[in-house]
Amino acid sequence: MRTLFKDDNAFTGLEAAIVLIAFIVVAAVFSYVILGAGFFTTQKSQEVVHTGVQQASSSMEVIGNVYGISTTGGENLQYIKFTIGNTAGGTALDVSKMVVTYTDPETRSPDVKYNSTGNADSLKVASGKMKKSPDLEDDSDKLGEWCILEKVNANTDTILEPGEQFIIGVSTPGTAKVNVPFTVNLQPSVGAVFALKRTAPAGIYPVNILY
To answer: What is the CB neighbour count within 10 angstroms for residue 59?
Structure first.
């Protein structure tokens, strides 16, 4: 009669193999999760860098002086004009999509309207309609206007390309009087805000260089 012996060696080896495989699977899953998080972080960092480069390369600059124009007999400025161009290495931008705001101690126009057919005369008319901030009542006719007065070395579109220059006119309200500081913010569709901080001169002439 044969005698049966109990031997658990094989079963113990199988358990160890199962546990080892489970550890390998868990480690692989955790490795995949960590690598995925790393790839996601890297992609986000690249997006931030690319966006920053795009923002910087799409900015513009003011070339030369800023002039204040008045025909009101020295009472106040009616509009300002200045020349803009791309910064060195900057990309083209659509000037017509630029948001312009005007602020002085008494008047604030949060969205000066773009007039595609505007000129010096229309800026003077818009200047007379601009009202103090408490009287705005969301009336767009009281917010003033801005326009492209002239283009230098440019074609007929509103895209400001490298090498081109646009002369911009922005209407100012009756509160732009002598010694009054004001700010005109230029926000292009892509790029940082460009702030023009100037002060109306002590004596207002038909043409004034603003500082």
So the answer is: 18
The DSSP annotation for 121-154 comes to HHHHHHHHH---GGG-TT-GGGS-EEEEEEEES-
Sign of CA dihedral 67, 72, 74, 76: negative
User: How does pLDDT run across 110-158, given as a tens digit for each residue?
Assistant: 889 999 999 999 999 999 888 866 555 556 678 899 999 999 998 999 9
**Residue 131: Cβ within 10 Å count:** 18
Provide the whole-model pTM. Answer: 0.72
CB 206 within 8 A of CB 71: yes
The three-state secondary structure class of 166 is: strand
Backbone angles phi, psi at 176, to 5 degrees: -80, 70
Q: What is the largest CA-CA distance in the chain?
A: 132
- Structural domain total, the chain: 2
Residue 190 DSSP class: S
Name the residue range of residue 179's domain.
59-210
Q: Are residues 203 and 111 in the same domain?
A: yes
